[in-house]
Amino acid sequence: MRLSFAPVGDSQQACYQAYLDACPQVASDYSFVNLWSWAEVYGLEWAFSDNLVWIRQNRPEPVLWAPVGDWRQMDWKTLKEELYPDFKYFIRVPVVLANIWSTVFGEQMEANTDRDQWDYLYDARDLRELRGNRFHKKKNLVNQFKKKIGIFMWRWTRKWRIGPWRFRTTGAHGGFATRLLNWKLRIRPL
């Protein structure tokens, strides 16, 4: 299979969303907004095939993310033969796909958890209200922001990606979040 990669852009957003909707498990990294906003920093590109969208990160080194689509319908052994050795290392692999690949590839696959790639989930009400001791620091930061900057609206562009990312990761290490595992995978030849 020859994949033709192109930079992530908004012209194929609707098409990408259809593949994303078919995924059995979706990590937040795979949202279109996330891909689009980080595309320049990581050199993100995508390639659309019949059943999957392949995402390639070019910086700091070329590596594939887990494909997007209905993983349950794929013949992974055939795909591996077509893609290997060009694509043998994957990052940001949701646990559901890691389990599918583990069943298919067995000892050919080496999987390692990568804490930097975990999703953290918060209750929307908790984030909206920021009540209690566990949200005290976050509430202070929000209040400082309101006093210093005020509340305003702006058009979302790539230059704003750092602010929301920093806010998101500030709470990621608070110890009270639920995590979804993501894996780094390396697939070896037989």
Number of domains: 2
Gross morphology: globular
How much of the polypeptide forms β-strand, as a percent range?
15-25%
Low-confidence stretches: 162-184
Average residue pLDDT: 80
Can you tell me the CATH topology of the largest domain?
Answer: Aminopeptidase
Helix share bin: 25-40%
What's the CATH class of the largest domain, please?
A: Alpha Beta
What tags apply to this protein structure?
single chain; 190 residues; alpha+beta; Aminopeptidase; 8-stranded mixed sheet; two-stranded antiparallel ribbon; globular
Write the layout of secondary structure elements.
Elements: E1 6-7, H1 13-22, H2 32-42, E2 45-48, E3 52-57, E4 63-65, E5 68-69, H3 76-83, E6 89-94, H4 95-105, E7 109-113, E8 119-121, H5 124-129, H6 136-148, H7 162-170, E9 178-180, E10 182-187
Parallel strand pairs: 4-6
Antiparallel strand pairs: 1-2, 2-3, 3-4, 3-5, 6-10, 7-10, 8-9
